[in-house]
Amino acid sequence: MRQRSILVRPGAIGISGLLLPFLLTACSASGAGSADRLGTPSANLPRPTATTTAAPAPTGSPVPKEGAQGLEGNGAVTAYQDWWDVQVEVLGRSDSDGVELRQYATGTAFTDTAISLTQLHDARLVMVGRPRTSPVLKSLDLQANPPTATIDDCLDVSDWHQADAATKEIKDPQQRLSRFPATAVLKKYGNRWLIADFTREVTKTC
């Protein structure tokens, strides 16, 4: 089952399916101090040096690796990794306002993660640690208006946790998926690729 947004149960901060678009629970989980969503990125934030780890694309990638398409494809993958780098920075701070997210995301990707950031703050939580990504460029359409790219990922959040903002005590739900398939759709505006939509498979692992 592919899911884009997170449903918040009235009167509870617990997760109904996952934590932000990334930390998933395997089933319904409640408990004081967990947040339903998370936020996204910024342009002037200090860049984490090892936030995400990209696995090399398989040799059977359907997108050419050379020429103009190769350059654009590399640019889209880099933008995706940059998005994750900045999310780690923003979501790890209790004083972040999420304004920087506009530099890396647009549309539903921006809206969903900005709401997640607010919910984290309301629950007095931050994210600690780092996720690991393995992006693979699956499609690239430079003739679309705007140009569009699709990236498949196996997101590993086993080392990325929600924690009390003051004490840094881990406050993960009792059950959550630590690895799951995800898909990002990027659109290019001017010379910049932005994440426009981010979905994940909530019923399977990878």
Order of helices and strands: EEEHHEEEEEE
The quaternary state of the protein chains shown equals single chain
**Gyration radius over CA:** 16 Å
Number of helices: 2
Alpha carbon gap, first and last residue: 14 Å
What shape does the CA trace take?
A: globular
Biggest sheet, spatial arrangement of strands:
1-9-8-6-5
| DSSP helix fraction | 10-25%
Number of strands: 9
Architecture in CATH? Answer: Roll
Secondary structure elements and their pairing?
Layout: E1 2-3, E2 18-19, E3 23-24, H1 67-91, H2 107-122, E4 125-129, E5 136-141, E6 148-156, E7 160-164, E8 179-189, E9 192-201
Signal peptide: 1-31
Region (Disordered): 35-70
Keywords: Signal
Task: Give an account of the 3D structure.
This protein is an alpha+beta fold. The chain has a single domain (39-171, 178-201), classed as Nuclear Transport Factor 2, Chain: A (Roll). The chain has helices spanning 67-91, 107-122, and strands at 2-3, 18-19, 23-24, 125-129, 136-141, 148-156, 160-164, 179-189, 192-201. It has a five-stranded antiparallel beta sheet. The protein has a two-stranded antiparallel sheet with strand order 2-3. The longest helix has 25 residues, at 67-91. Mean pLDDT is 76; it is low at 5-19 and 21-61. Residues 1-31 form the signal peptide. This is Secreted protein. Keywords: Signal.
